[in-house]
Amino acid sequence: MPCYVYRSSRKQDTYLYLPKKDDFSSLPKTLLDVFGGPVFALEFELTPERRLAREDAAQVMANLKSRGFHLQMPAENEAPV
């Protein structure tokens, strides 16, 4: 499945995965308001076996099919400084 990734113009380390390039029609307006203007980052072929840096490929695929998008939020600090 093709996958298109956009970074948030407002929230650092926040990414949006879409199954169609530049198709934001499935996104809730409130999400776009918080996310800000999506900035295209990359595209790739997503398969269940593909290793992603911070996400589970099978979960991303499931979200793309059921919701039409997948939102990747910044990781929480595991050990406070």
Would you mind describing this structure in some detail?
This protein has 81 residues and is of the alpha+beta class. It has one domain: YcgL domain (NE1680-like fold, Roll), CATH 3.10.510.20. It has helices spanning 29-35, 57-66, and strands spanning 2-7, 15-18, 39-45, 70-72. The chain has a 4-stranded antiparallel β-sheet with strand order 3-1-2-4. 19% of the residues are buried. The model has no long low-confidence stretch (mean pLDDT 91).
List keywords for this structure.
single chain, 81 residues, alpha+beta, NE1680-like fold, 4-stranded antiparallel beta sheet, 2 helices, globular
Share of β-strand residues: 15-25%
Counting structural domains, the number is 1
Spatial separation of the terminal alpha carbons? 40 Å
CATH homologous superfamily heading? YcgL domain
Secondary-structure element order, as H and E? EEHEHE
Instruction: Strand order, main sheet: write it out.
Output: 3-1-2-4
What sort of overall outline do the alpha carbons produce when their principal axes are compared? Answer: globular
Most strands sheet:
4 strands, antiparallel
Number of strands: 4
Task: Provide mean pLDDT, rounded.
Answer: 91
CATH topology: NE1680-like fold
CATH top level class name: Alpha Beta
Helix content: 10-25%
Q: Identify the CATH architecture.
A: Roll
Q: Spans of 5+ residues with little confidence (pLDDT < 50)?
A: none
